[in-house]
Amino acid sequence: MTDDRSSSPGPGGVGNGPADRPAADESAEPAVRAETIVNSQVLDSVEQSTKFVFGSPAGTAIAYQKVAQACALAVQDATDYQRNVMSVSTAAQGKALALMMSDPANVERYATAYVLAMIAPVAAAVTAGLVGKEAREILAGFPQA
After folding, report:
1. pLDDT tens-digit profile of 13-67?
2. How far apart, in whole angstroms, are the C-alpha atoms of residue 129 and residue 78?
3. pTM of the prediction?
C-alpha cells in the first residue's frame, strides 16, 4: 500500500502535500518565496482585510473608536491620580497639623510639609486638566469617515 498523503488535497480541495508546493528557490527574494509558500487565497484574504480596515469608512470608525477609548482611559487615569493625590495630601496635612500642635517649638518645620500637602492637589488638578485637554485635541484632530 502506498502512502499518498503527501500529494492528496487537503480540506476544501486545496493541496497541502509537498507535491503541491513549488520548491523554494534559494536565490529568490524573500518576498517571492513567501508568496510561493503561502496560499494565494490567504494572501488575498489578508489584502482585502487590510483594505477594509484602512481604506473604508467602517475601518476608520473602528480606528476612531479605539483612539477614543484610549483617550477616555487616559482621562480616567488622570482622575484616579488626582483622587489619590488628594487622599495622600489630606493624610499629610492631618499629620503636619498634629505635629504642629504637639511640638509648638518646631511649627515652621511642619508648616512647610503642611503647605506642600495643600499645593499637591492643585498640581494634580492641573495635570488632570492637561490630560483632558490633550485627549480632546487628539480626538478632534483624528480623521473621521
Report:
1. 555 555 555 555 555 555 555 556 777 888 788 888 777 666 667 777 788 889 9
2. 8
3. 0.57
Spell out the residues 6+ positions from residue 106 whose beta carbon is closer than 8 angstroms to its own: 99, 100
CA dihedral of residues 86, 90, 92, 96 (deg, nearest 10): 150
- Is residue 21 in a domain? no
The closest alpha carbon to 93, from 120, 128, 125, belongs to: 120
Cα 59 to Cα 42, 52, 69, 88, 145: the distances in Å are 20, 6, 15, 44, 9
Does the residue 72 lie in any domain?
Answer: yes
Using a 10 angstrom Cβ sphere, with 0-12 exposed, 13-18 middle and 19 or more buried, the burial of residue 50 is exposed
Half-sphere exposure of 107 toward its Cβ, with a 13 Å CA cutoff? 3
**Cα–Cα distance, 13 to 18 (Å, whole number):** 15
Query: 95 lies in a domain?
Result: yes
What total number of domains does the chain contain? 1
Asked whether residue 121 is assigned to any structural domain, the reply reads yes
- Name the DSSP class of 77: H
| Domain region containing 101 | 56-141
